[in-house]
Amino acid sequence: MAAAGAVTTAAASYIPRTRDSFLYFLSRAVTLSQLTQLHAQLLHHGFRSDIATTTKLTNRLFDFSAVHHARSLYFSFPEPDRFLCNVLVKGLASNESPRSAISAFKRLREEKSIDLGPDNFTYAFVIPAAASLGDVKVGLSLHGQVIVGGFGSDLFIGSAFIDFYFKLGRDDMARKVFDELPERDAVLCNTMVSGLGRCSRFEESIGIFRRMVSGDGPKVDCTTVISVLPAAAELQDLRLGMEVHCLAIKFGFYSHVSVLTGLVSLYSKCGDIGSAKLLFGQIGRRDLISCNAMIAGFTCNDDIESSLKLFRELLQTGEKVNPSTIVGLIPVHSPFGHLLLTNCIHGFSIKSGMVSRPSVSTALTTIYSRLNEMDSARRTFDESSDKTLASWNAMISGYAQNGLTEAAVSLFQEMQMSNISPNPVTITSILSACAQLGALSLGQWVHGLIKSNKFDSNIYVSTALIDMYAKCGSIVEARRLFDSIPNKNNVTWNAMISGYGLHGHGQEALKLFHEMVSSGTPLTRITFLSILYACSHSGLVKEGEEIFKSMTRDHGFEPISEHYACVVDILGRAGKLKEALEFIEGIPGDPGTPIWSTLLGACMVHKDTNVARIASEKLFELDPGNMGYYVLMSNIYSSDKNFPGAAFVRQVAKKRKLSKTPGCTLIEIHQKPHVFKAGDWSHPQSRAIYAELERLNGKMKEAGYQAETMASLHDVEEEEKELMVKVHSEKLAIAFGLISTEPGTEIRIFKNLRICLDCHTASKYISKVSQRVIVARDANRFHRFEDGVCSCGDYW
User: Which residues are CB-contacts of 592 (< 8 A; sequence separation ≥ 6)?
Assistant: First the structure.
């Protein structure tokens, strides 16, 4: 305060009345009050029309967010020059007045004077304003003006445009700007490294960093290191992180607080919390940012106690926490078991007023969704007054991940009507919902949206499209998209291999797997799960067994429960049930429900009640609330004519008050979904549907069809009711498809449970007598019925 008073006193009484003296004291002012007093002195001593002091004062007023005062000063100046105009544009843009900044820029462009026309600094200052508005059209207009004005090769403007395009999700345009610039400096490359990381293109971000390190580009600086660390952290690439760590030490950046903070985040996200704590301890003067990084590090490693302890220490020292502190404290990475903690954090956020900050409300929405507390998630979302794109994404993703696909689609449509443009995260979430629903027409509409927004170059969007088309039955379109992607990552390969497996195209999946190995793309556990799944669904027993062995022997991956389940399924398909049981008994640890349920399903196919009894006892113990296992075991007994055994199992389920999942089948006709249940008469065309069924039954019987009396006993929970009414939902959907489409049109249906034996047999006959291809996706796989034959080979 003494220093501040000295400045004020000197400005009022003792400083020489010269321009340089005023410029000196303007730069040293530390409060808005001092600036206003200096302004009065300038007016008193005749500097009203002095361009240098007016420019300096305007700039400093913006530093203190005195936007109205700065604007008044600018507009009172008789003849502003370009430099003063740039100060105005920059000040408005940096003080959350982007529209005013763009208006000021437009007035500058309209000036006839050559001296007042925009220069490279003007454009570099106004571009961030366009980014703040979130309006890509304004940015594209500015880009055109830059090129016409001859500034297309300016690195300062180029960096601003790259940052602009990244912030608006147009990473394709950012890349284009970067690639077309003839020269590159460190600022430009750092902007690219940081931007690619922010839009989840981590490998490309690291690629530019590596080229800079190798000398193919500008020299690495401290900002480069800070920019690349988040990409390494998100990939959980500890080795790369350690390389960057060594580089920071070599180049003398190691002691920089931002570098140490970035390293704390890196080691935390890679699971090395010990190194993170050590680095945190080396920060001499810890600021809130570094403390936030450590809190988030503890939280993501499920060390909630240490996270809360550091948070309390911050509060006790009087440090004012910010939204990033709260976000770091919320255990979104390991939410299970932390509902009470989440409620407490939510309460603190409300009390402190930080719940109104978008980052906090979005994080709360995310964790509630992951805890399957969807009512709390939606309430938090609805109560947020400032819904950002991230907020919408969190809620849409939450619905999709919890199987509430219709709610996800509905919210996405609401978002569209609110004129909020989606980004790649939104698109991948809604494509996931389309894939779960089997909503091909909606997925195709989203594909059109992707093209119009130029998102098709984003690898995650392209991969989600492949997954959507595969799960909606369009495996050919999925492969076409796969082949069109120039730089595939392992997720892309996995999605295509998995898609082939879902459709029972095991040989194609194997061929693609070997191509992936040859391409040098890193394999993952998901890769092996996808290819084992494909082998189990295509009867490739020897191939599947060999791949399982090579996973550990050649690639060093320890199998998880799902890998073991695939091997059990492979052995079960071959009828090697005792061998499958011996395999299970040799699994380290306790085999989980996926493994035993797979064995039980194989027992149903091969009617092995002895092995089934062992498997069912394990399942009743591990998951006693799952009605499906009781139904399946009862069916196995019934198929073996052991009706007392079947009755006993159903009686046990009844005593436990277990309920069955209701079955339904969806079909899309002319882009409109129609859902049928067993014995459904609610559809407006029910009479025509049932008449078509009668006609089909007659033709099928002529072709040799006999109803499967045990149809409802094939691992399908809701079929008891369907057996009572004699009309299954699959048949209703197919009949409706036949009367609603032109002859020769492919029929596609989607069943939420496994298709029953009778419907499977009936679908084969219907495909033959109607000369139609019928594609059915059930809870397990795709079935393609054509000319009386199913692609699954009658094993599903």
Answer: 561, 622
